[in-house]
Amino acid sequence: MENYVTMLPVAAQPLIDFSDAEDAVIVEDPVMQSSVSFLDANTNAISLEELASTCVVPTWGNQDLTISHQDFINCIHEAAKDFYRGETVNDPSIRVSHIVRGRTPDALGKRASELLECEKTQFYQRMAFAFTIPTIFETVNGQKLELCCGGVRNYSDLNLYRQNKGVEKVSIFVGWRVRICSNQILTGDGVKLSLEVMTVSDIYKAAMELFYSFLPAKQLHLMQTLSNTYLSETQFATLVGRMRMYQALPPRLSRSIPNLLITDSQINNVCRGFYSNPDFGGENGAISMWSFHNLMTEANKSSYIDSYLQRAVNATDVCVGLNNAMHGVEGGYSWFLS
Q1: Which residues sit opposite 232 in a β-bridge?
Q2: Distance CA 203, CA 208 (A)
Q3: Using one digit for the tens of pLDDT, what is the confidence trace for 209-266?
Q4: What global pTM score does this model have?
Q5: Using the 8-state DSSP alphabet, how is residue 334 labeled?
Q6: What is the spatial distance between Cα 134 and Cα 19, in angstroms, rounded to a whole number?
Q7: Which Pfam families match (predicted)?
Q8: Residue 310 belongs to some domain of the structure
Q9: 269 with 328, same domain?
Q10: Same domain flag for 77 and 201
Q11: Same domain assignment for residues 101 and 209
């Protein structure tokens, strides 16, 4: 982690001559697409080609087109290739959900069973995508991390019945992804939620601003700090119990405690992971906060697309807050350990 300058994009590198430098980042293994999805439950995989060829693009009430999913994906992908010039940028993995089916005007009077394929229309209300930049990587606690970018779109955020074109909302992110399992590491500094845009150019500009302001070394330092702190099995049990209690707290009490977005079923998955996860489970009656964070982000893969990013950021906030509480730093998270 000493040579963070090797992780900076061409556009952001300082004007220093490195011609005599001896250290270099060497990619020892070939670039491969991960076979593990960053989202599992409640979603389906789809290719960019299929998205463009089989899905219609919704319009506003005056028939102005919305920004298509494929244009959104291509925009962020191109922005990453421009900003991280010279790096390898993998193709995006795309997940969709909440399909909306329709039919062409000439098939309005037909029964559903009589419809021809050419008379059917569809689009997906929710879409998320992510792609890695495998030549920008680091290792934390023995696990390889690759830089990852992506975005989330939800058409239900729009009132498509309005008669004039309105602003559209998208969410974009940049962070690290654990290669072995595709667990996403996101912080508030690497995410722009519900970004209001009018055109694809607005998305491109926002993505470039996000990439420029994102500090990969800062996020890596947070993860390294988590890997140096351990929860005993008793502390883990207390923490899980408090997380379950949090879901039932009356508002007057929950307002004084930091926000926790993980659900009961996801907490159950975290518990199972403590005993069964081969990469991030407990060892010798203890678990590092780094592993606990990975159990939470692994559980987050069962979230719906529209809540995925918020919970990913919240998982990092919770783990960092718990880590600080264990070192005597006040911040409200001590309640979860008491």
Answers
A1: 286
A2: 9
A3: 999 999 999 999 999 999 999 999 999 999 999 999 998 999 888 888 999 999 999 9
A4: 0.86
A5: G
A6: 24
A7: DUF3871
A8: yes
A9: yes
A10: yes
A11: yes
